[in-house]
Amino acid sequence: MERSLGAGKQKEYVGFATLPSQVHRKTVKKGFTFTLMVAGETGLGKSTLINSLFLTDLYRDRKVPNAEERISQTVDIIKHTIGIEEKGIKLRLSIIDTPGFGDAVNNTASWKHVEDYIDQQFEQYFRDESGLNRKNIQDNRVHCLLYFISPFGHGLRPIDVECMKALHVKVNIIPLLAKADSLTQAEVHSKKLKMRDEIKQFGINIYQFPECDSDEDEDFQRQEQILKDSIPFAVIGSNIQVDSKGRRFRGRSYPWGVVEVENPVHSDFLMLRNMLVRTHMQDLKDVTREIHYENYRAQCIQSMTRMMVQERKRSRN
What we know:
The protein contains nine helices and eleven strands. The protein is of the alpha/beta class. The protein has a single domain, classed as Rossmann fold. The strands form three sheets. Strands 4-5-3-6-7-8 form a six-stranded mixed sheet, with helices on both faces. The protein has a three-stranded antiparallel sheet with strand order 9-10-11, with no helix packed on it. It has a two-stranded antiparallel sheet with strand order 1-2. Strand 9 and strand 10 form a beta hairpin. Helix 8 packs across helix 9. The longest helix is centred in the last third of the chain and has 36 residues. The radius of gyration is 23 Å and the shape is globular. The N and C termini lie far apart (62 Å). This is Septin 4a.
C-alpha cells in the first residue's frame, strides 16, 4: 500500500512488500518434505533411476531375489528417508519402494498393498490434523507415483491399466517408459503415442500439468507443452561413470556406442528430474493436498456423519 503526499514529496510505504521474504525465511528454516513412490515389475531399473535422480545410493544393502522367490513373493512396502541439502535448502525425501509388484504368477489385485499404504498415510494425517497437537504434523502422504512400464510389450498390460485406474484417484501418477536404451528412437516415439492413446482410451487420469497463465512468457509455455507431449517419459538410469571422447559422465557403454543418462537426445531423464525437482514438486504437493487428500477427508467426514446419524436413531429407539 502506498500513500501520495502531494507534489514533490516522497511516497510512504507501510512495508508489507517484505511478506514474501518473511514467508521464504520461515519456510527455509522449517525445510521441505517430499514423498515419492515407485512401482513396476522387477528388472525395469527402478532403483537405478532413483539413485540417478537424487545422486545417492539407497539400495546398497538390497538383496536381489532369485526367480523362484520372485514368483512366490508378495508385494512389500519399503520406505527410505534421506536428508538432502542444497544451497542452504533442506529437503526430507522419502522414497517408497514396492519390490514384488507384478512379479507373481497371479497378479490379481497386486496393487492393493500400494493402495492400502497410500490410504494409511491419508488416515494418519487426518488423525493428526484432527488431534489436539497439530503444531508438528509430519506429512507422509504420497505426493507422486512413478509408474514404470515395460518397453518389451505392445503397450499397456492389463495389470498396468488396472493398477493405474485403481490409484489415479489417490495419487499423482507419472508413467515412465523404462529402459529406453533398449529401443530405437522410432520405437520410443511409436510406443509413447500408443500408450498415450491407451491411457485416454481406458480413462486413466494421470498427473495433469497445470495450465499456463496468459501472462507467462512464450519460452515457459513452450517448455510446458514439451512436458505434456513427452508423456510417458522415456528414461534411462545408470550409476556408472563412463569415459568417452575426453568426457566423463553417467551412462552405459554398448558395442554400438555410448548412452548418456543426461543427454536429452538419448532419453527424457533430464526432463523428468527437472520436472520433479525444479519446476513441479510444489504443484504435486498442492494437488495431493487440495484434491486427493480432500477427497479422502470428505469421505471420512461423510462416513462419520452417517455413523452419528445412525447412532442417534438407535438411541431414540
